[in-house]
Amino acid sequence: MPPEGGARYWHPLADSAGRIQCDLCPRHCRPRPGQRGFCFVRRNTGGQMELTTYGRSSGFAVDPMEKKPLNHVLPGSTVFSFGTAGCNLACQFCQNWDLSAAREMDRLMAFAEPSEIAAAAAAAGCRAVAYTYNDPVIFAEYAIDTAAACRELGLLNVAVTAGYIEGQGRADLFGAMDAANIDLKAFSPEFYRRLTGARLEAVLDTLCYVVKETPVWVEITTLLIPGHNDSEAELDGLTSWIADQLGPDVPLHFTAFHPAHRLTNTPRTPLATLLRARTMALANGLRYVYTGNVADPATSTTYCPGCGSALVERDWFTVLRCRLGPDGTCPDCGQAVPGRWG
Known about the structure:
By secondary structure, the chain is of the alpha/beta class. The protein has helices spanning 97-100, 114-123, 140-152, 167-175, 189-196, 200-213, 232-246, 271-283, and strands spanning 10-12, 20-22, 42-45, 48-51, 56-57, 59-64, 78-83, 110-111, 128-131, 156-161, 179-183, 217-224, 252-256, 289-292, 302-303, 310-315, 318-322. The chain has one domain (56-300): Alpha-Beta Barrel (TIM Barrel). The chain has eight helices and 17 strands. The strands form five sheets. Strands 6-7-9-10-11-12-13-14 form an eight-stranded mixed β-sheet. It has a three-stranded antiparallel β-sheet with strand order 15-16-17, with no helix packed on it. Helix 2 (114-123) crosses helix 3 (140-152). The two termini are 34 Å apart.
């Protein structure tokens, strides 16, 4: 294991410039000594990769699990949330752009070792720790070490991520997690290239890997942006792909966009758009489809796919009633509902 601040996913390059290559995400940045990668937080320091945000956080909060959003993980529980700064995507619509696009290390106000985060989460009565606000991919070593400390105290680990990661780093990060909400920002390679600076194929590969090859519980979020990723053709393709490739039991959250960062002239997402997308997803075979960033309890509720009973009723992030037992079965018909309920 490298010393504190040392990164694990890189290798030196045989060139006279002293460059090294980051192997954590598909960008494969090759910084020279003193240079940083695209994410800004991984730097070539004397021929070694340094994670400059290790042990440094932009702040901490106690959130409802439903805010991540994770609707099939310990309903009504609280989660200790933290993040750092920087990102390996460049989303023009980022809702946390002040952190993800940060280029000032003074945004990182809190110093905390992994064991201190785990202890603070337990002291706050939380059931889990969430690696969120900015993408845990770029602070993977810090997240993995913190996750190990959390597991020693019986806490779950939750990643909120865009899934732009590959190789050993991907295996290690998700190997440390119990649940994840992964953004599928669109189903168009052009959208990803133009509005995020990333590649759709890499995200699809991560989704397939985590769902099919790990025990991590996965939910997906798609932020619907008017005029950019909300056409019927794209929604049909996205929801059909999830049902066919990942299975009907992966929950999908359609959330409403509000003007932010570089898309301030794009209007908010109407509720009707979210409802149309949800109807299409259900018609394409998905069983658990939710809306977010809007007040609509009916589409925030978890229903039994067998008899249609309301099992977990929600209003925004508040659980009003949960009728599921620890084994996740419907009390009316006995249908099993997948998730992490206990």
